[in-house]
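Mods, move this if it's the wrong board.
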Amino acid sequence: MRSLLGRFAFPTAILIAGFVLVYVSGTIPSSLDWLRLYGPYFMFAIGAVLAAAFNRGRSLFALLTLVTAYAAQQWWLQDGLTTPSARAVYLALAVFVPVNLALLALLPERGALNRRGALYLAVLAVEIAVTAWVIASGRTDISDWGSQKFLVPAPFAVGTIPQSGIAALILALIVSMAAALTSRSALSASCAGAILAFAVAAHVPTASLTFSIFIAAAELMIVIATLQDRLSTTIPDRARTKARTRSPR
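Not the wrong board. Structure tokens:
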């Protein structure tokens, strides 16, 4: 039970810190304004280096999913959801990001520089290509259909996130939490926390500061989980090595 609580401790603390940081954001010195814009990119760079060094494919592609979402928000969503292209991008983020994180929480670690890593990258590329095709072809009917209200009762009829996105978020959260409960991976628990952080960010897609803070918070969860998973495999390996060296021949 203690180890289980420990897996969710860091994501919970970081999520709370994100709300606090948004609340006190007005007191942040102007000299740190660059962090508001580049914080998610900076956190991605740190996490990507660690994930590559430790050969953690799930961490690398979780970070890539999150930083892609942030770049899309910066490029498409800051001026609102009034255009068909902005609505298409918003719908794609609301559905694809939580689904990607849930799959990464569920699948076993197989490293980054291999066939599984190429498959992760191909999935992300297909998602981007589909979204770009919807925008370029003017297929507003697709994004309009995905953004319609299928259910009236709360919580499916409140907030900015499309109901299809809410359904994806709920399903992804259930899957990632189940994966965290049945595995010893800190990354699975952090993927659940990252889904919650993304849900907060996606709820206010035009609020760049809030979006930036919670995407960076989600990335920080993944970075810490990468270190935790690395330590959890390194320490037992060292213990087994010492036991073998001490055992009589």
